[in-house]
Amino acid sequence: MDLELLSGLAQPNTTKIVLCSLDGLGGLPRPETGKSELETARISNLHALAGRAACGLIRHVGPGITPGSGPGHLGLFGYDPLRFPVGRGVLEALGIDFELKPGDVAARGNFCTVDAQGKITDRRAGRIPTETCVRLVERLRRITVDGVQALVEPVKEHRFVLVLRGTGLSGRLSETDPQAVGVAPLTARALAPEAERTAAIVNRWVEAARPLLKDAGPANMLLLRGFDQQPHLPRFPDVFRLRAAAIAAYPMYRGLARLVGMEVLKTGSRFADEIATLRQHWETYDFFFLHYKDTDKAGEDGDFAAKVRALEAFDALLPQVLALKPDVLAVSGDHATPAILKAHGWQPVPTLIWSAYSGADPVSRFTERDCAGGTLGLLPAQDLMPLLMANALRFTKYGA
Amino acid sequence: MDLELLSGLAQPNTTKIVLCSLDGLGGLPRPETGKSELETARISNLHALAGRAACGLIRHVGPGITPGSGPGHLGLFGYDPLRFPVGRGVLEALGIDFELKPGDVAARGNFCTVDAQGKITDRRAGRIPTETCVRLVERLRRITVDGVQALVEPVKEHRFVLVLRGTGLSGRLSETDPQAVGVAPLTARALAPEAERTAAIVNRWVEAARPLLKDAGPANMLLLRGFDQQPHLPRFPDVFRLRAAAIAAYPMYRGLARLVGMEVLKTGSRFADEIATLRQHWETYDFFFLHYKDTDKAGEDGDFAAKVRALEAFDALLPQVLALKPDVLAVSGDHATPAILKAHGWQPVPTLIWSAYSGADPVSRFTERDCAGGTLGLLPAQDLMPLLMANALRFTKYGA
């Protein structure tokens, strides 16, 4: 749906919406038992809720397309991820809670190893320890380039973020990472006329970095990729006329919520902390985005049992969310992370919407297989928000 | 999905994909039993596979739209058939294994009967025997027109193909077939300025044919329709980065596969021959399109029992395909051909995708009714290829 159309239908109400995103929620049956993580877990609260809710499967990008965290969450927030791409540099900055400003150009950086001829021998510099990364980033911060702020932040191991801040910058740049060894790092090129100056600045910055890293083997050079600026996204609170808050223990998800203009609430590192934060701010907002990370982490590790435990831990805390009596409660995820795949998957993600008006459907268990038979069907992720708005009686009708 | 986007996600792997197209697969319940062909057939291998696979229904063009073989197969190959129309003349040429070259203009021809005033009395010349058609085509081959090759090939009964080969030709021509009796054949008109010369050539060719057919009653004249050139299609092996081979006993399907740039493998006339060909070339390709014709033939004949037998014959040979251990196996069709309809139908077609990561769904029988409840849902045919790519772990994720 067109966001402008949705925005035209949005009307105020006093109802409250909670959207729980279980990161990497969807799974796959393990061959030993023929049962998925959701089918294995003891999650009686989720099953009971599914029995009273409308269920279905959501797909974030397209059939067979595995979403990254950016597209996965934009979909949940009501944005078509294909219309609003988010660059890797921007995501990397969001992932370390870096507050990007409009116009900033962000890039993902790698420390790498080059030989005496300047040719790359290891694109990740042997995954140097994070402390080394922090020390090298300190060095890079000394570099100044004509009237532009070059902000550098360590991430993890060989990874860092470079953010250029100034006027008239552009992210339309080619990468300096040739994605191969045995060749020298590339020069950044402007991919559009308006990026010529930024390309020159990047190349001067890289040249200034070279002598500073010369003695820092194995991390004696760097590579930059995924240059981008923040996408121009219509603000979530404006589109849906909601006072919207995000509660997430992990920086990436706070960053994505901030990108669409949600208020990011300070919270602790555990999901119980997130729920406490929810309780504390219950009166102040209309919409809460509540992020649960542990399911994804376990899936990425290929740890089926840990993913089952993460689902059970969420299920045990769910009654605390229900106790707040939201008018609309949705449970879904930003993508699948099947433990047998050890990575994000393309499989559609189980979804439930509960409200006084969600209707019931044949589904009484919150699993991939059961949700496939639900009344929501298989729907694009960006269709979820309009459904939540409708269930919250926050949309007026279309056409008199 | 946009083919360029898909192409950007495609990555190499060593996995193998087999796509079985059962022509006219979908059926309808016969009133006597209330059961469709698939519901009647003893197809335990397909049912067992469905139990381990993800199931759904695919639709090739749109709701209520019956696909011809061209759109039906383009959909299976990942192309939106509405974006890439294939003209009748081109399909007719593909159907007789005629190797069209880029720029060739092909038309479907009919021998017809005209009266003394030149008015059409029978648009199909009483469906003359194919031998007569062959003889008359010999006569037409004598015609030469200014610098253009006019290639004529018999098809069946009153049908033939005309292919004009030369430079600067265009298929934007009106038909000479008025689709009515009691009127004279029409003159071909250019539908675009660039087609003026081709229109003149066609009309001169038709005028040269008239005296050659004068004594050949009832086939004493001809009609041309469906002028077209090969569509410009992105090459399948490039879009999906697959070494792709087609195995089909019937020329039409070989032609359609060739149209998208697949390698067409020499095979025999029976499905067992096709499987032998598959086995023989197993190591050389990543993707195999395997076509099974008998289901459609029986459906077109309105022979319910023969269609059931054709399904059972396929089922009996399926283990030989499984024995090759493809990483991804899909079974679907290019359209429905319900025996009670005696023609192609608009009904969506049962589809299964099996891989180690296809997940299971509630479906354990490969029928129209059961597949409607599968996790794949009801999906456009062109979404099948991205799913096969994902299951083959040949797509990288979208968005970091």
Feature tags:
13 strands, 400 residues, 14 helices
How would you describe the overall organization of this protein?
Two copies of one chain form a homodimer. Chain A is an alpha/beta fold and 400 residues long. The first copy, chain A, is 32% helix and 19% strand. Chain A is built from 14 helices and 13 strands. In chain A, the strands form two sheets. An eight-stranded mixed beta sheet of chain A has the order 9-8-10-1-11-12-2-13, with helices on both faces. In chain A, strands 3, 4, 5, 6 and 7 form a five-stranded antiparallel beta sheet that branches. In chain A, helix 4 packs across helix 9 and helix 5 crosses helix 9. The longest helix of chain A has 19 residues. The model of chain A has no long low-confidence stretch (mean pLDDT 95). Chains A and B meet through helix 4, helix 5 and helix 13 of A and helix 14 of B.
Secondary structure elements and pairings:
The structure is a homodimer of 400-residue chains.
Chain A (H helix, E strand, L loop, with lengths): L2 H7 L7 E6 L14 H4 L3 H9 L1 E6 L9 H8 L11 H8 L9 E10 L5 E3 L7 H11 L8 E8 L2 E7 L30 H18 L7 E8 L7 H4 L4 E4 L3 H9 L3 E2 L6 H10 L6 E6 L1 H7 L3 H19 L5 E5 L16 E7 L12 H4 L5 E4 L3 H8 L9
Parallel strand pairs in A: 1-10, 1-11, 2-13, 8-9, 8-10
Antiparallel strand pairs in A: 2-12, 3-4, 3-6, 3-7, 5-6, 11-12
Helix pairs in contact in A: 4-9, 5-9, 10-12, 11-12
